[in-house]
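In this supplementary section we document a worked example of the pipeline. Step one takes a protein sequence of length 212 as its only input; no multiple sequence alignment statistics are reported here. Step two produces a three-dimensional model, which step three serialises into structure tokens for compact storage. The input and output of this example are shown verbatim.
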Amino acid sequence: MSIWWRIMGRSPDMWRWLSHNHQTLTAVGAMLVGIAALFVAWDQGRVMRAQQHGAVYPALQIDGYVNDNGETRDVGVRVSNNGVGPAIVESVRILRSGEGQSGAGGLIERLPEGYHQSWSSMVGRIIAPGETVQPLSFSWSGDAHSEADFAAFGQEWFRWDLEICYCSVFERCWINSTDRSGPPQSVDQCRRDETDIFEAISDVPEAQEPEE
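The serialised model returned by step three reads:
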């Protein structure tokens, strides 16, 4: 005989209680089943939310570039969404050696005469999956810079970084930048910029073509 039956056999009061409290036992059983069902529903909801967020996860990659084909030289920044959901850009920062800048005057001063500048607004922009945006670029004739001047400009160029804070359609947010080697950093929220830094850069007068 098992230990359980020995205990029950020595406890007639317990048998009597069980035989007269079927409704209480049924209620306790129903409560336990309800708790188990609630846990299963919560867990399924958690999994479904994770699947929903994963289905629209944006992943911005920000790359600076320098091209020199002999005839022309150009530098700029490309922003690509390598995720599976749209990225809503909320704020953009330009940094030099890790310090935030209000513009890129110190870099533009090193450009040669006759350079061409192009820019694209970013704040509030929605970048679709697979889309690439070029928010800023400068180009000039290959002979406008000496090799030494171009090398000095390149050293200055790579001291500058672009940092973007962006969100998914479910308001989950991340920060990524040109100097970040790992995955985007998750943040609680992004504060929307009132102005676009690239508009400020575009207000800097471009160098004029040299007169003949």
